[in-house]
């Protein structure tokens, strides 16, 4: 019997695959196409304290083996999420992770407080959204910023707290260690890489916001390297993401030290990418004689 | 309800320079689809042309269980798609999106299309069997004025214009629409095409107090309302929001849309 379950400091997942925030809506968008009960967890669309309309379109540009997006956190606000979305998600056998973003630390604390009293399973701190001008990105870019926000939100957060890191920093290890020392239960990485794509005929950026976050297979090697570095530097669980589309991709991250993975951009192309990834991990374990997923995590041998 | 489907390519035909018609066999889509909806097509097997491409349904043949999509090569995705072999499989999510209102109450309709925006209108015309149909199509030049026989067959009156006068009237198709409106009152106008044309049609409809539906285009990610990238402004200037072309559209009432982005 192959055991795929992992425990992320109290966030107990039946398999190590989580749908990444911003790529899976609130789950209901995918119900027609996949079995939500077969996904370890769902990190919902990034929430803010109040409703946000997001950035002007175009908000997406396809690039080689990837996409750039600048949605700008369009969402109905945290209260509408609690009222309208949790009841639907709760009907499914999957864990609910609320991804939160704010303009000020007070926003984050307020949201953590509201969500701690709601029926969710974990909170993911988005301190690294590259697509909103105020706040957000500023918190995740420096050791001081990440320490401050993690510490303050921690005091309001009664759920497992995952801090999602941006790759747009000089040393990802330092930022991860700062989050750990201020009380994060887990680290998730990587958020998107800041990028740009230009329409050469119009001589203008494709995205209305000029720049956006790069995701998809193109970012995978960068993500694997960062997950490896971070998992060697912290003792809390690491959730890896960046270009994962199938079981083999997920295994790379897990060998590099990820206790769980998030599947993002791949959901847009294959709505059952999360379920397929979980199935792929299981097949790999079967093929290589692993019974417990923990025997796999971080088992990479360097040359 | 839409599904992820793997269907067979029956035919690929080049209609004009860079414009292709693909005929796909699909029992499911031909039973479920209605005019105005689109399919989201995976153009390549690998990680190039990563995203699916949304392409409107141009026609449905229920008896033979086939549908036509017509697309222009705009990049590598559509280029791959144009090279699909007959008999090969195509991966689609379909049918998607809110359709046109095809109520029988509309007895006299006008259909206004421009460029590659004309294609979803053929399916609409073929479905509106009881209405009297006036069709207005604008193209860059005669090379792009494709599927004219099909449009003629599906319409009671067909007007064509081109930018250079190489086919039909020389000038804007909306000029002909305005001229016709001097003597005819339509119950509804449906339109799809370049934004400047759509805006003009919407203005004309408003001025003449005629209902109007627009089919919009925007760069999409998922096509199923999850990624929220295909935003379009709806509501009114005091109270607007970003709706999404894939799920809330692509067809909207002209009165819902704010054209200022």
What features would you describe in this structure?
The complex is a heterodimer of chains A (303) and B (261). Chain A has 303 residues and is of the alpha/beta class. Chain A has one domain (6-55, 72-197, 214-295): TIM Barrel. In chain A, 31% of the residues lie in helices and 20% in strands. Chain A contains nine helices and 16 strands. Chain B has 261 residues and is an alpha/beta fold. Chain B has helices at residues 27-32, 76-82, 119-127, 148-154, 173-181, 195-207, and strands at residues 3-16, 19-25, 38-42, 53-61, 66-72, 89-96, 108-114, 132-139, 157-162, 169-170, 188-192, 211-215, 231-235, 240-244, 251-253. A seven-stranded mixed sheet of chain B has the order 10-9-8-7-11-12-15, sandwiched between helices. In chain B, strand 4 (53-61) and strand 5 (66-72) form a beta hairpin. In chain B, helix 5 (173-181) packs parallel to helix 6. Chain B starts with a strand and ends in an 8-residue tail after the last strand. Classes of the chains: A alpha/beta (303), B alpha/beta (261). Chain A binds chain B through residues 22-25, 29-30, 32-33, 45, 53-62, 64-67, 69, 71, 74, 206, 208, 216-217, 245, 265, 267-272, and chain B through 1-4, 42, 47-52, 75, 77, 93, 218-232, 240-242, 261.
